[in-house]
TrEMBL record:
It comes from the Bacteria. GO terms for biological process: response to stress. Residues 9-167 form the SprT-like domain. InterPro entries: SprT-like_domain. This is SprT-like domain-containing protein. It comes from Halorhodospira halophila (strain DSM 244 / SL1). It holds the Pfam family SprT-like. Coiled coil: none annotated.
Length: 169
């Protein structure tokens, strides 16, 4: 198993081509369709994206730093995004509809819409802080959390008007 981000990225690019060939074996009409180009997302919590117009799949490169992130990208995210392109080409499918789900199942990957990776620390991902008011729990950004810690700002719930307090972890 590759360990560096650069090696893992090359591995994912190769495996994307291999998976596209498997799609072609299962759905022969895809054999004449070009292999999608792979691009890399540099920030955010999205594991992958499919661009139907540009025929591109993109994956979250910082996730490759972590073993659990790498395992989410390959094979789940790779197959998830390729299935968007394949289902669009064959069935004019958009989004996570029945055609897309059916393809995921046939390719042997669970048709999950989102991943459950802890995204704390990924570039461009804000940590959320748990606070409480009279109606329940709310999540605050680090910017707001720091203002409360510094005492420069008090936040009240718009509904119950109670001052937000830090929730116990
Ligand atoms: Zn999707
Ligand atoms: Zn409230």
């Amino acid at each position: 198993m590759p360990t560096s981000v650069a090696e893992r990225a090359r591995f994912v690019e190769r495996e994307t081509r291999t998976w596209w060939d498997r799609f072609g074996t299962t759905y022969p009409r895809l054999n004449r369709v070009a292999t999608p180009k792979v691009e890399w997302l540099r920030r955010g919590s999205t594991a992958g994206r499919a661009d139907l117009r540009r025929w591109v799949v993109a994956f979250n490169r910082p996730m490759l730093r972590r073993d659990d992130g790498f395992r989410i990208i390959l094979p789940d995210t790779v197959v998830h995004e390729l299935a968007h392109l394949a289902a669009f080409h064959l069935y004019d499918s958009r989004g996570h509809d029945a055609a897309w789900r059916g393809m995921m199942e046939r390719m042997g990957v669970p048709p999950r819409r989102t991943h459950d990776l802890d995204v704390t620390g990924l570039p461009g991902v804000q940590r959320r802080w748990r606070y409480r008011c009279g109606c329940g729990e709310v999540q605050l950004s680090t910017t707001r959390h720091n203002r409360i810690l510094r005492g420069t700002q008090i936040y009240r719930c718009a509904r119950c008007h109670r001052q937000l307090e830090r929730a116990e972890d």
